[in-house]
Design goal:
With about 150 residues, the protein is mainly α. The chain has one domain (about 1-145). Helix content is about 80%, strand content about 5%. It contains three helices and two strands. It has a two-stranded antiparallel ribbon with strand order 1-2. Helix 1 (about 1-35) runs antiparallel to helix 2 (about 40-75) and helix 2 crosses helix 3. The radius of gyration is 25 Å and the shape is elongated. The two termini are about 50 Å apart.
Length: about 150
């Protein structure tokens, strides 16, 4: 179930990223054309405003999905998230009225996740590598005795 959920989240994040990039390319192409034909400054600014309006909601939805994903991974690893009162890490003043991680908050949570995974891998390797060595030595001894 977790694997299906993971791929569904990745698909949604990928779809929104592509949509955001496509919208930006569309408006950047029109802005470049407007500059080439020396359009009035007001028209170029209007295109920038339209681009911001079109991309803001998609960008916030993308941040919301990433926040959900990071919270789920942190919960699974039993990590504590930053306090919700911390304005540098959490943002609520957005049109969708969601509580999402700021980019600095995302970096912080990702750093904690990487550190927890690294520690788990180190603990695992601390026991597995010697066991593999012992198994290899025993296999070698058995092979020599059977000759």
């Amino acid at each position: 179930m977790q694997l299906v959920q993971y791929f569904e989240e990745r698909r949604q994040i990928y779809r929104l990223s592509r949509e955001l990039a496509s919208t930006r390319r569309f408006y950047e192409r029109h802005i470049t054309e407007a500059r080439k034909r020396r359009a009035p400054r007001a028209e170029i600014e209007q295109l920038y405003d339209e681009m911001r309006l079109q991309t803001e909601v998609t960008d916030l939805e993308l941040d919301r999905l990433i926040t959900i994903r990071l919270r789920r991974v942190a919960d699974r690893l039993l990590l504590t998230l930053p306090k919700y009162e911390d304005k540098e890490v959490w943002e609520k003043e957005n049109p969708l009225n969601y509580l999402i991680l700021t980019h600095e908050g995302m970096k912080s949570v990702r750093r904690s996740i990487r550190q927890a995974r690294r520690e788990a891998a180190e603990y695992f390797l601390k026991w597995v590598v010697p066991m593999i060595g012992i198994i290899g030595a025993l296999t070698g001894l058995i092979a020599v005795w059977k000759r």
